[in-house]
Each structure stands twice: as structure tokens, then as C-alpha cells.
TrEMBL record:
The protein's name: Major facilitator superfamily (MFS) profile domain-containing protein
Biased composition (Polar residues): 20-32
Region (Disordered): 15-47
SUPFAM superfamilies the record matches: MFS general substrate transporter
Record-stated family: Belongs to the major facilitator superfamily.
Length: 456
């Protein structure tokens, strides 16, 4: 399971002294990373080349429990997509129901930020206390509580308040599952499928939400009956799948010569963590800003009918799904750094067409192509981070970065709403173009990934 580079074979004539593994290592012998960590600690005089050991990674079907766990995680990300894309589709109806302005309505985007911030700071600590089993339980429980309150059609301040609880649940799960899959074999493809499930949920959400309001004549809040039911299934399936993933198991597999305390602080000192955090902040903010305000833009600037305008949001999220699933197999072949740069340039061209050609159908096609182009960016960023950072920092660093990205989904759409309030919804297009340019600049700040690391 562990392959040693040729220079270690040169000393084969002199058999090394074999030390017995600690009892905890024997108990967790299914984890090659854990065994390697214990061997290194038990032999402090090992050669410097030990960092060159090639560690075999978990596969999607080995150990077998991973198949069930991946299914549970894919379902969780489907629910993420349903949640995030519902804001944009329901935004005009929330505004009309509560008689609020653009700026006040945009608070539904901003309020989850506090929850994401808490998740970013405490993700690694919660992992060490409760393991992935605890995350699989606490995350959906936060969301269920929020959805039940919203489905009662409470006053608007209560809606804004409980969305922060949903944000904390999403932040915990987003950080945990991205970090876990990011360390597996074929992580580009798996993350593409994972975020494709997000895109699938985001594709369905505007369709269902718009149809419930416009065709079914139901209140916008009834959509959250569905969300509460689905997340109830998520908490049961996820907790069962990760039942053996306890805090003890996590601490044993992710330690640095001690109990691993302060790992988040250590990860934040890494340049890669800060760059990835900025990248995810802008990327997720751009994605949700465009998906969140596109319906309003198409209704008021392109003069589309409510249902047709809602379908443009479906087209955007469908494009995102197609891009994540299909281009996830292309990205590792040409390398994350070059691939993401190409995707962003294509997205900029499509955004210019969307902005400068004032035709409803052209705008609908262009926004779908933007979705295809930016779809693979988040999975590629996760993979780049896991390749550039030590394994022990993955949950802390990737978790923090992903949670900050979730904060972008809160802060940036709110900022866009403030600008729309002051300047009009037509300002959406130059804002999105500027965000894409900024994304490319941040991405190019990442260190180069060694050529052999492009192989999954």
C-alpha cells in the first residue's frame, strides 16, 4: 500500500529494524496515511526522503463504506443546490410579500454569513471532538430548524435571523465533505460529480420554486416544506453512513506530533490557504450573485415573463452542472492552473455577450454558457489546495477556505443588492465581469503545482 521511491531501495541489503506499530495504529490499520504517520513518529531518525513517500489514497469504492458515504454526501450537496438557488427564484416574491426594497430583501443573502463564519472558525475543532459523524448530524439539524421556522411564514426579521442558522449548517458540511473527498483518489472527477449534484439541485430549485408560486398559486414559504423533508432524510442517512467516523478516529489520522490543537491557526499562516479563501470568496459570491439576481434582471431589463425569466436561472444552474461533471474529467489532463485560466477567459467572453446583446434568448444562452465555464472552478480549487498543503492541514485549511467561500455567497449578493438599489439592476453585468477578472488575478497568485501532482 505504501510505495517507497528507488533511493530507499538502495539500503535493502541492510534490513532496517522493524518497530511495532502503536496500538492505535493497529486499530486503524485500514488507513495508510495513519500508518505512515505513526511509522514516521516512531522513527525520528528516518531519512529526509520520507516526505517523498507516495501514499495510496482511499478510493470511491474502497473501503466499501466509502460508496455509502459518497452517496450520502452527494445527496447533501443536492440539498445545498436546492437551498442556494431558491433565493434568486423566490426573491421577487419575497420582496412583494414583505413590501421591502432591493437592499432590505438582500438581507436574506447576508444573514447566512455569520453562520458560515462560525463554521469556518470551529470546523476543525468540531471534527476533533465529534468526528465526521458529529458533522453529519449537527449540520443538517441546523438547517432543519431554520427551514421549519421559515415554512411557518414568520415576520421578515425572523426569516433573516434563521437563515444564519442554515448558513452555519451548510458551512460545516461544505467544509467537511470537500476536505474529505479532496484527499481521495481521482479527486478531480469525484469533486466534479459532487458539485454536479449541487448544480443539479440548483437547476431544479428555480423550476420547482417558480412553478409553485406562479402555477400552483402557493406562498413562496411553502417551498421550505420540501427542504425540511429532504434535509430530515439527509441527517438520518449521513449520520448512519459516518457512524464509525468518530472524533478519536479523526484525531488519530490527523495529528502532527501531538493532539493537533491550533491546526486552524497553523493553516491560516499558509499562503495557499489565504489565496484559496479569497478565490472561493469571490467565486461563490459571483456564482450566487448571478444566479440570485438573474431572474430580476431578465424580468426588468430584458422584459421577460415571470416563468420564462425563472427558467433562465434554471439554464444557468444546468450549465453549471454540465460544466462540473464533464470538465471535471478534462481539468486533470491539462492541469488545474491552466484549465481554470482558460475557463475564466471563456466565461468573460460569454459575459460580454450577455451584457452587450440586449436580446432575451441571447442572454438566456449566454448565461447558461457562463454556468458551463465557471462550473469546474470550485472543485479545481479544492484539488489545488489539497495538493499544495500537507495532509494534516486539509480539513482545517480546505474547510476554512470553503466556509469563507460560503460567506461569499452571503456577502457579495448583498453588496450587489445594495448597488442595484442605488444604480439599478442593469449594473449586474459589469459587476459580474469585474468579479471574473478579479478571480483570474487571484488564481494566478497560487504557487505552481509540480507536474507529477496533476495526475490523480
Amino acid at each position: 500500500m505504501v510505495n517507497i521511491l528507488p533511493k530507499f531501495l538502495q539500503s535493502a541489503a541492510t534490513p532496517p529494524k522493524i518497530q511495532s506499530l502503536p496500538s492505535e495504529a493497529r486499530a486503524n490499520s485500514s488507513s495508510p496515511e495513519h500508518i505512515l504517520s505513526d511509522l514516521t513518529k516512531s522513527n525520528p531518525d528516518s531519512e529526509p526522503g520520507i516526505s517523498d513517500v507516495v501514499i495510496s489514497r482511499d478510493k470511491w469504492n474502497h473501503p466499501r463504506v466509502n460508496t455509502w458515504r459518497l452517496a450520502a454526501i452527494f445527496f447533501a450537496f443536492f440539498n445545498f443546490g436546492l437551498n442556494d438557488a431558491s433565493y434568486g427564484a423566490l426573491l421577487p416574491y419575497i420582496e412583494a410579500d414583505y413590501h421591502t426594497s432591493y437592499l432590505v430583501t438582500s438581507l436574506v443573502f447576508l444573514s447566512p454569513f455569520s453562520g458560515y463564519a462560525i463554521a469556518a472558525l470551529f470546523s476543525d475543532s468540531l471534527h476533533r471532538l465529534f468526528g465526521r459523524r458529529g458533522i453529519a448530524f449537527f449540520g443538517p439539524t441546523c438547517k432543519i430548524t431554520a427551514y421549519i421556522v421559515i415554512s411557518t411564514h414568520p415576520p421578515y426579521p425572523a426569516v433573516v435571523a434563521v437563515f444564519s442558522l442554515a448558513g452555519m449548517g451548510n458551512g460545516l458540511l461544505d467544509a467537511a465533505w470537500n476536505a474529505w473527498i479532496g484527499t481521495m483518489d481521482q479527486q478531480n472527477q469525484l469533486l466534479g460529480l459532487l458539485h454536479g449534484c449541487y448544480g443539479l439541485g440548483a437547476t431544479i430549485s428555480p423550476l420547482v420554486g417558480t412553478a409553485m408560486v406562479t402555477k400552483g398559486q402557493l406562498g413562496w414559504w411553502t417551498f421550505y416544506y420540501i427542504m425540511a423533508g429532504l434535509v430530515t432524510v439527509e441527517v438520518v442517512v449521513g449520520t448512519a453512513a459516518f457512524w464509525t467516523a468518530t472524533g478519536t478516529e479523526y484525531r488519530d489520522a490527523n495529528s502532527l506530533g501531538g493532539e493537533g490543537k491550533g491546526m486552524t491557526k497553523l493553516a491560516l499562516k499558509q499562503k495557499v490557504t489565504l489565496i484559496c479563501s479569497a478565490f472561493f470568496l469571490i467565486y461563490v459570491g459571483t456564482e450566487v450573485s448571478l444566479g440570485g439576481w438573474i431572474v430580476t434582471f431578465m424580468m426588468r431589463i430584458r422584459h421577460g415573463q415571470p416563468f420564462a425569466s425563472g427558467m433562465t436561472a434554471t439554464g444557468f444552474w444546468l450549465g453549471l452542472t454540465i460544466g462540473r461533471v464533464s470538465l471535471g474529467f478534462v481539468t486533470p489532463r491539462i492541469g488545474e492552473r491552466l484549465a481554470v485560466s482558460i475557463y475564466l477567459v471563456v466565461a468573460m467572453v460569454c459575459e460580454l455577450i450577455f451584457w452587450l446583446v440586449p436580446q432575451f434568448m441571447v442572454s438566456a444562452v449566454a448565461v447558461a454558457l457562463i454556468g458551463v465555464s465557471i462550473g469546474p472552478l470550485f472543485p479545481a480549487g479544492i484539488v489545488a489546495a489539497t495538493k499544495l498543503l500537507p495532509q494534516e492541514m486539509h480539513v482545517a485549511a480546505v474547510g476554512f477556505s470553503a466556509a469563507i467561500g460560503g460567506g461569499g455567497a452571503a456577502v457579495m449578493p448583498f453588496a450587489v443588492g445594495a448597488i442595484v438599489q442605488a444604480r439599478g439592476v442593469q449594473t449586474l453585468q459589469p459587476l459580474i465581469l469585474g468579479f471574473l477578472v478579479l478571480l483570474l488575478a487571484i488564481w494566478l497568485m497560487l504557487p505552481r503545482i509540480p507536474r507529477h501532482e496533476h495526475q490523480s
